[in-house]
Amino acid sequence: MAKSTAELQEMREQMAGQMSLRVEDKNAIRVVVGMGTCGIAAGARDIMRVIVDEVGAHNATHVKVIMDGNNKDAENAPVVEIHVLGKDTVTYTKVDAAKAKQIAAEVIGEAK
Amino acid sequence: MNFARAHIMVCGGTGCTSSKSPEIAAEFRKQLEAAGLADEVKVVQTGCFGLCALGPIVVVYPEGSFYSMVTIDDVKEIVDEHLVKGRPVERLLYHEGADHHGTVHSSLNDTDFYRKQKRIALRNCGRINPENIDEYIAFDGYKALEKVLKTMQPQEVIDVIKASGLRGRGGAGFPTGNKWQFAANEKNDVKYVCCNADEGDPGAFMDRSVLEGDPHSVIEAMAIAGFAAGAHEGYVYVRAEYPIAVHRLTIAIEQAREYGMLGKNIFGTGFDFDITVRLGAGAFVCGEETALMTSIEGHRGEPRPRPPFPAVKGLFGQPTLENNVETFANVTWIINNGPEAFAAMGTERSKGTKVFALGGKITNTGLVEIPMGTTLREVVEEIGGGVPNGKKFKAAQTGGPSGGCLPASLIDTPLDYESMAAVGSIVGSGGLIVMDEDNCMVDIAKFFLEFTVDESCGKCAPCRIGTRRMLEILNKITSGNGTLEDIDRLEELCEHVKANSLCGLGQTAPNPVLSTLKHFRDEYVAHVVDKKCPAGVCKDLLNYSIDPEKCKGCTACARACPVGAITGTVKEPHTIDTSKCIKCGTCISKCRFGAITKG
Ligand SMILES: Cc1cc2nc3c(=O)[nH]c(=O)nc-3n(C[C@H](O)[C@H](O)[C@H](O)COP(=O)(O)O)c2cc1C
Ligand code: SF4
Ligand code: SF4
Ligand code: SF4
Ligand code: FES
After folding, report:
1. Chain B CA closest to residue A54
2. Please, are residues B3 and A56 in contact by the beta-carbon 8 Å criterion?
3. Which residues from B are below 8 Å from A64, CB to CB?
4. Which of B39, B280, B463, B567 is in the most buried spot, having the most CB atoms within 10 Å?
5. Which ipTM was obtained for this model?
6. Mutate which of A23, A59, A67 to test chain B, going by most B C-beta atoms within 10 A?
7. pLDDT at B591
8. What does pTM read for this prediction?
């Protein structure tokens, strides 16, 4: 079926979040989830999932969710850090699903 | 809804496919499934990343981790470590520097190989799945065509291309906008757009990579060219030895038709355009525009005299706009980003970027796209990672069999049309072969001439007979039977063939000889006067000998010699019987005492 302008634009918007994964953007907000063995044991994979889905659902192309294999702080896992170029890193500890949603909402809001 | 948090890009270019990348992609899917990550991590098969010699290449996003020489057995480790735990597998990451033992970067964009590149024509190669039109559309695909059809007049499109300064990337560097103008100016109901994907230079493969990695960029540009020139039919002429390119191009054309980007009434504007793919047997001469059209018409691919030029009387006798693949690949970028942005890159008269295929004695062999005017030194020493094994850079051959060489003294020459012409070479289609001290320049000239002799279509005598005579003289010189008069005779023949051949093949065939004569005449003289090959390549001029002072009589060489040319008793100096020696070089590599020399 021939695509209309509106359909093409909708396709581009829908895919933007996914495709932005492949574009390097030094100014992106980087949400770094501490994985590694202890992070995963403390549920970091679920936390990662929650954040990725939120960011994806909002098509937040300026947010990158990155895994970090070196969890520095096993006591407080899962740990999530927010890195923004030229700003201090913000660290969240013992993140649960609700907190993860909240973090995602914050960075998505900031990115907008 | 599940959003993938990581994309594994597995190179599906020709190079990596032959080193088993499809199996690696399948293994990734299997291992991701086993790790329970199948819906979190997506595997994408892409076009060429440019570092084919280090393939198979795998890139993991969002980090941009750049893995090279990945094997099937490595896949599980990448999945378990990188994708489950977030620890990139350092051992498999691309290491830059000599012999690839140097620095590792966390992202491919930080490597020397990529940092200085500016990817316009190759923008989507390695970034999208070329078999999926949706991914092309996501990166603004078909936006330029829509803009052109809905908001611009043909003349405005031509003016944009003119303003960009884009010139043909197929060899001659003719201003693309002017070419489009000539075709548009012809008053005729039937006109054609042709895309030249013959890619005859044996050292070049950028056109193949564009078609394999981003076929829609060529399709979209051809439709735009059709609108600008008033043509409704396009042909892509691609060599049959490029099966992956042909396959992906065919898929892309079907998808474009399905979405209404090709066919009747495109974007509801009433403009019709469609594309046919024609396979060529891969003769060098068929890349010449008139021969290419003759071949598309179903005849033997022989050139015809110009004028008439294709813009006036081309394919099937109708006005035809013909461009190279890489030329087309720049078009939509120019429409989307504006001609000023394109003209901002490059030099005064050479705008934009050019893709070069680096080959020969260089650490990073592969495809690089750089702004015009980047110096040869930057390409060789920085992007290319230098000459391996501690050898010295001797020269670079550019433009393949039609081109010339740049000696070490000209390494700061900017790579653009004017600067290259000024030193007697050409940009050509972008082949760039690096030579080190072990290369004999007479031998190099012979190599290219052998190619043109083979590829000459035989239609005109200066090329058919003249190039053969030239090759005979070169053979005489490299076998030690040449004289100084032969060098003069060779030069005269070059001028004759250049001036009298019918098509560009013959007209440019003498270039490799002329430029090596210009920059390395002393090497020719050494062959004919001293009967020596300074680089130690021409076998007939080599003699192997053993220095009795250094020889310890260890017998290693004698045992290794395939023809029993070395004799001697244990612990006594050995000798080589030069009448038996076949100059294979085995003994040199066996001697641990450096007692054997050639020269
Ligand atoms: C012997 C010979 C071989 C050529 N081979 C090619 C080729 O493989 N691909 C190509 O695009 N142009 C080739 N050309 C140049 C074409 O004739 C023509 O100039 C070019 O395709 C025009 O496209 P452009 O203006 O976009 O560069 C060749 C020319 C000659 C004389
Ligand atoms: S110059 Fe060579 S290739 Fe060209 S027409 Fe003459 S013989 Fe054929
Ligand atoms: S070059 Fe080869 S053939 Fe000649 S002596 Fe050495 S090993 Fe024997
Ligand atoms: S290998 Fe070298 S040292 Fe040993 S016998 Fe041969 S030339 Fe002499
Ligand atoms: S084919 Fe894989 S990098 Fe070129």
Report:
1. B3
2. yes
3. 62
4. B463
5. 0.91
6. A67
7. 95
8. 0.94
